[in-house]
């Protein structure tokens, strides 16, 4: 299996999968899943002629955990290792949910010289937390409940989280039980330390000052029924703060729209990549 060994920590290996040829697209997964979450997008991107690379964030999927390095500087450094060690040029970066943070922090720390365009899908960008100047964000008490649940009963919390991920309820069966079971298995297998520390990063990082660093062509996609990262605190603000963007709202879509609305999302992605 292909792994990249981190140059600053030989005990940490990042698992990646590399498909096709052509201009490279790196797909960065959301929390608390793995690169497997892009299953419904990979064939479409390959058919468009791209080289498609997924990787598991450290501590998730098949990548090694570490005791630290889960802040966005550390995570962007991991992304930089992928790009550097694979010698990728003119890269396209896709960030889903938490993965949007790696994309924006990468542009902040490493610049845009080697990045062609980006996509932020159901992304946390620019801010999750509710503040006086961000009234539509997630209240601190709700974030505290998540952190406490992760520390005391992580496995049970993840079961309910993925129902919210897809807006599954008694009368709303947006995905199958098997899909929920699949996601739960991936998420529960993740390292507990990585799960908690990454949650702290996506919950507490304010990317609003960094939006000015996003100068490449950008696709923003968000569902207007996202119960995990509300569109008003994320997609709409990102579209206001990033100058060169295409902002697409998928009506009725939950956070996990890459699964529930895969056909619509794939069409949006295809048009974005093939447009001039």
Automatic annotation (TrEMBL):
GO molecular function: catalytic activity
InterPro entries: AB_hydrolase (IPR050471), AB_hydrolase_1 (IPR000073), AB_hydrolase_fold (IPR029058), Epox_hydrolase-like (IPR000639)
Domain AB hydrolase-1: 24-261
Residue ranges of coiled coil: none
Similarity field: Belongs to the AB hydrolase superfamily. Bacterial non-heme haloperoxidase / perhydrolase family.
Record-given protein name: Pimeloyl-ACP methyl ester carboxylesterase
